[in-house]
Each structure stands twice: as structure tokens, then as C-alpha cells.
Amino acid sequence: MQPTLNAAVSVTELGVDFGNFKAVNQVSFSVAPGEIFGFLGANGAGKTTTIRVLCGLLIPTRGTVTVAGIPYLSEESADRIKEKVGYMSQKFTLYNDLTVAENLNFTASLRKLERTYYLKRKKELFDFITFDKPESTMVKDLPGGMKQQVSLAASMLHNPEIIFLDEPTAGVTSAAREKFWSLIKSLAKNGKTIFVTSHYMDEVEQCDRIALMRSGELIALDSPKGLKESTFPHPLYELTPKRKIPYSEIEALRSPDYFDSFQAYGLRFHASPRTAQSWNEFLMRYSEDFDSQIIQPTLEDVFIRLVEGQNR
Amino acid sequence: MNHQNLPHPQGVGIAVQDLKKRLGPNQALDGVTLNFQAGLMHGLIGPEGAGKTTLLRTLLQLLKPNSGTILYEDEGKATPFTDLRPSIAYMPQQQSLYADLSIGEHLEFFKELYSIPEAEYQQKSEELLKITRLDKFIDRPAGNLSGGMYKKLGLMCSLLRSPRVLLLDEPTNGVDPISRREFWDLLYRLADQKILIIIATAYLDEAERCAQVHLIESGRTLAEGEPRELLKLEGVPNFDALFIARSKRKEGPHATHT
Amino acid sequence: MKIARIKAIAKKEIFHVVRDPFTLALALLLPVMMVTIFGLAIEFNVQNIKIAVYDGDQTQSSRKLIDTLASSGYFLIDSFPTQFAAIHQVDAESDRAALMIEPEFEHHLWSDRGARAQLVLDGADNSTVGSVVGYFTAMQDLATHKILGSPITTPVEVKTRFLFNPELNSRWFVVPGLLVVVVGILSILLTSLTVAREYENGSMELLLSTPVEPIEIILGKLAPYVGLGLSAVVFVYIIARVFFHVPFLGSHFTLILGCVLFLSTYLAQGLLISVTTRKQQVAMQIAMMSGLLPSILLSGFIFAIESMPLFFRGLTAALPARWFMVICRDTFLKGSSLYALRYSFLALLLICTVMVVIASKKFKRDVEP
User: Fold this and answer.
1) Which chain B positions have a beta carbon within 8 Å of C207's beta carbon?
2) Which regions in chain B score pLDDT beneath 50?
3) In the CATH hierarchy, which top-level class contains the domain C49-148?
4) What predicted TM-score, i.e. pTM, was given to this entire model?
5) ipTM exceeding 0.85, yes/no
């Protein structure tokens, strides 16, 4: 991971301490302009802390951080970074009891945008998200997907180079999600850098690259495909019980005789055999109990496998 | 294909017929018709505002429908809701535990509310604490638990009395993937016990983990059935695509209807 | 209905009270503060009121009037300035009032016109004006007797005693009234918060989905506050008897009956507020407006009901605090029997019933908006 000069975000050996607690430790990565970068981690993994640093909200304890070409050194550089980044979270960005126009006006005045620039920009963004409702609509009356798109527009009023999205499509309709991702992709195509954090793996599936954090450290960084391949060099099987299998028997399968990993996936199981031989042994003994098929691992499988692997 | 398709209904089943419910300006339920077959794990899947929570609340008679019927069946016989109430457990979507009460105090509290005999409670609470791995945190107030632990505590409170019907409203919302898998693992154990489980969720990847899924949008049913069969039938790779295909189809007939 | 469930809810409620610093402070400190402020501060206020006296008459009679004031303990005769200086001293707020005894006071005393002395008060200082006028009126009667009726001493003495005792100890009047205020605040404020908190928290939904009956929730939630209210009663009672030496002439049974009735009314009112608003902040404000303020301002605690405008006098009839105030003061000071207080009790009972009925009707087993 060599920090490149023209990277949108470049982080080298970042460390953030809260008292004696190392919230983030020795984290290095860089994100290219126009990249959609997924950022994952369990609660307390240091994900939020890292994002705060990149948004200019928290001065790093150690390491070097460059955001949009600005080295993060002081309060003064933080202010300059804030001009270059936009932040959107479906939960907090808009005020429900204000209209769409009032919300955007408010954001513009916070950003101290010049009026003609703001109006021009607003029109551009409305066109971009194909907003076709009156601007005087109360935000609370917008459908979830529309709200999320207006939210995105609000975070982009000042034309930031890097946009942070926090669980952006949680809870919206499939159609809205599809539209949102097509918007995101067209932004990326036009050189905007997109940073996505989410607990939901299907949401980050569309990222170019994904970084995975655990206990303040970066444990994996690759494309979704690459992550899946490197984490599951052997095929991953989905096992569907043919009868109700008591939990005690399931528990027995968890022991590493046959599998590296054996996880409940609803009423089915995702299992990764230790070796081809152990898989055959399993089949011989249990083919009466389970149907099996090879599946593509989901990012959730990857995530769990990686974090568990670290725990062992 | 579906290992759980049993010849007779076992336990409680719920049939919902043309349910309508208006909440303020919103038509939260707009003629939902669903069949929750006994003994299966059902996924109630739909985006925010689809009417999932309203439906669950109506099933619990926390809300009264404007029209339509809900039929509760126990071992195939129609049963009034009030008879079933003691065997139904519910986990609301909102945080609904007491921040200032510890895990142990929550368990004690729900033990009394459900009038669980002491011996049964001892055995059950011990077992639940062990499998949720919350036993080490028994004195920790709910307000200081992580998202995943909080949800587990909520589930534990509702499982304390060995319910026959379990309604879970977005149980994995805001929970990290590890805790989410643990949660589903717990649910697998429950599926052993012939109980009707209904899980409302906005996360489509959770759909295929259920035995039956019910897709709802704008207060109406889009599709119902065994998840993989549904996908196969429609010829789509995932539930996002299924949603999009079905909601397009639904728009036509409904427009002429009104 | 299961006692165990009521107990479980009550126990949980006690946890909430004990663990929430605000509630705990309200429950423990409020009675103490109230008693201190109203019991001690008001007392301090009405003693040693500095007044300037202009004696334009300089006779035996005028001096008797001044002596009566001086020996009462309420007034501190500050100075004997000139007529203008006396007024100026009131103006400059160095004295609270000025007594102007006109020349020929004694002379007029025996005439048809009657003698006159003028009391000049700083009308801006509302709080003392009331007490000064009150004390002064009493004092004036005494003085009249002292001056006029010196030959016949017995009736004067009898009358003095009768007039004096209740006035002399204004605390005797105030402290039993504190029962109303303290119990009122604790019950209505805390209960109005308790159910609203469950709604706000989302836990009401969970509670209602369990087999627990609404009546069990109500009883379980109210029980700790009945306990809290009654312990406040005991607290104020002890303070009244031990520290302020307020006599207790009536029956304890009557007082407790009144307390329980009043407490139930306010608890039901708090519950009603809580169930209707479902928001803690709104509930608190409405509780303040509908329970707390009336129990201080319209109960006769501070302002006498007889001297209120007709409209407000009528309004007080609907306020439980007004009736409980009568019950408290009369059992303490007059020793009134249950029979003598029957109207107050009946009124309280009526309001209580109405409140309980409305509150339990409003509390439903659903979360309909």
C-alpha cells in the first residue's frame, strides 16, 4: 500500500488513542479518486473513529493522514478538509419538520455558500437525483428513497471531492436502492471518491474495494471478489437439513473435525470444509441429513470468517 | 425441497385476510393478505414504511384494523387471541428495555409478568444466559450494552416463557455481522421447538434464511412462498430484483382497482 | 389480576425512582425544601418588620398604640422621624411601613369621629404588605382595647387570646398546608412522568404484549408513589409537630383518610395526563399547570379563597387541593371531626372517583395513536 501523491485519501500508520485505549492502531491505506471504498467493522472496531479523522473531526494521535491533498496536521487543516468532504447518513442529515428547500438552505448557510452558486448547485443536484416533487414538501412526507437522495444532495451542495456514506440504503425500497447505487456509480465515474460504511454486506457488495477493521486494526483490504477468493480458497457449501437436526448435533459439527467454519444461515448452514478429504468424510456420514450445494460466499461469510480467524 | 413442509399444522398459525389500517394520513396496511403457516419461520420482508411494524402490532392486537380479519388457529382449530396471548412473545423494533435495569433484573421482571414457576425460570434463564453468552454481564444495565447484546437481551426476555409464537420486529437492525450470525444461530435453535416465528426485516439478504417469506410494500403483499422457489419462479437472482419485478406488476391491477 | 405481577411492576418502578437522580432528588429534597422555605422563611419574613412611626399626638393613647406594636414582636420600631422623613424612609426602603398618628389622636378617640392613624406601605413589596396589614389589623384591635377598655380588663384579655393565637403562629397555618403542596407535587409530577416514560421508551409496547393486565400496570405503577406520598405526609407531620410545635387537635384517622383520598385523586390525574400525552415533557408541563400551580395558588395555601374573585372561587371547588387544604388545617388546628368535614370529604371523593374512572378508561390495551 504505497501512498500515492494524487490519492483522494491516504493514511499511513494512523493511530488514535483515547487515554490508554488504542481505538485505532497502525492503520494504512489509500483510496484513489473515483473509487468506491467500503469500510467495514464490528461495533467498536475503530471504524467510526477512522471516519471521524478523515472528516476532519478528530486529530490523529500518530501517523500521517492526507485528505484531498491536504495533510491533516492541525485545526486549521481540519477546516480545509471539511470543505472537501461531504457526509451523509440517512438517520441524521435532514430535519423532518422542515421542507426540502429549508433543509438545503440551512445546509448552504452552514457551508456559507454564495447565493447564486448555491441556487445553481441546487438545480444541478435536483436534476441529478431527478427530484420531481415541490421543494416545499416536508421532508417527513417524502418516501424513504427520495429522502435518502435529497440527503445525498444536501451532503454535496458544496461540491465535495470525497463523500462519506453511512449505512446509506438501510431500509429503503429495492427500486430506490438500485437508483441510489446508480447515482453513486455515476458520481464515482465523474471522479468523486465514495466512502461507504455499513453493517450490511449486500450494501457494500458494489464497492470497488473493501477494508475490514477489527480491534482498531486493518485486517483485510481487497476487492469483494478478491476477498471472497482469498478467504475461501476451498469451496463454500450451503447445507440444508433434510430433517430437523437437534442443535446438539449441529454443535458437534462445529468442532474442527470436518470444517474450518460452520455457521447458521437462517435454517441452513454455510460450511467451509477443512480439506477435500474431510468433506468426503462428512458426506459419507451425513448425506442422509443434509442436502448440499456449492455457493458463492457472501461478504458476510467473508467478514465472519476473517474476524473469527483472528479470534482463534 | 422444503424440509419443514409438514403434513399437518403444528402449533399456532395465523391467517390475515384483506387487512386495512390507516394511521393518521398514511394507509399503513392497504389490504394485506398473508398466511403464516404453523411451525415455520416466516420472514416479513419489506422496506421501511411498508407496514411491517403495523402488521405485527395488529397481530398482537396493539392496533385495531379498520377492516379485514385475522384468524388465529391452534392445532388447526380457530382460537380467540386472548387465549393465545400468554403464549405469544414479541420483540419490538424500538429499543424497549429499561436502560437503568440490569440483565438480571430484566429477567426477574419478565419472569413475574409471565408468571413463570421458579424452577422453570432457574433452568431457562441459566440456559439462555449461557447460549447468549450474556452470563458474564448479568449485572450490567441494559443502557450500557452494545447493540448486539441489547438485541440478545430482548430476545432472551421474550424466550423466557418458551413462547409458541414469536414476533420479532427488525431484530438485527443496527447489529454488526457477527452478532447478527449469533442471533440467527439462536433462532435456529428455536425452530427446533415447533413455534411460529415471524421476523420483520428490511434486509433482503435475510429473506432466504427463512422457511417462508412474505414480501410487502406500501401495505400490500407482493409475493409469498418458499424463498428459493420464489426466486426460481420469477427467474431473478435475488430479492432486490424480485421486489422490483413484483412491484412493477402490482402497480397495474391496483391502479384500476381504485 | 395477579399480585405477583403488580409487585413486579412496583419493584421495577422503585428501581427507576432510586436510580434516577432527578426523581430521587424531587422525592427526597422537595419536601425538605418546601418545609424550609415555607416553614422558616415565611416566619422570618413576618417578624421584626421595621416600621417608622410618626407620633403627631404624643399622648398616652398614641404611646399605648406604639407600645402595643413594639411589644408584639412583629414590628421593630425603627425611629420616630418627622412626618415627611417617615414617608421618605418607606420610599428609600429602609422601612417597610410608616405609621402616621395624627395630632389630636387621643382627642378624637373620644369623639364621634373616632381616632385615626394612617399606615403607609410600600405597595411594590407585595409579600410583606399582606402580612403587615394582617398583623396590623390584629394589633389595632388589641390596641383599641388597651386604650379604650382599660377599666374592664377581662374581656380584653379573652378577646386578645382568641385573636392572637392563630395569627401569632402563622406557621401553624402554613405548615399543615404544606402537606397539600408536598403531596401534590410528588404525586402528580412523578406519576405523570412514569407512564409517559414507558410510552416514550417504547417499553409500553412490550409490556402490553405480555399477559400483564392494564389494571396491574396501573396499580403496580401507583403503589410506590402512594408509599412515597404517604412518607412525605409522615415527614411533614413530624416536622410540623416537633419543629414547629403545631398542635394536632383532630383525629389521625381523619387526616390519613383525607391524605389517601387526595393522593389517589392526584395520582389518577397524573396517570390521566401521562396516558393522554405519552410524552414526558408535555406531561410534566401539564402536571405543573393542572396540579402544582393550583395546589399552591388556588388551594387557599397562599391566597385566601374567600377573597378571590367569584370565578376563581367557583373554580377552586373543582380542585382537590382546595378541599384537602381544609381537611388538613381543620384536623390540625380545629380538631374538626369527620362529620364536620363531610362536605370537603364528599367533594374530594367525587373528584377522585371521576379522575379514577376517566384515567382507567383512557388507559387501553393498545398503542393506537
Assistant:
1) 113
2) 1-7, 253-258
3) alpha beta
4) 0.80
5) no
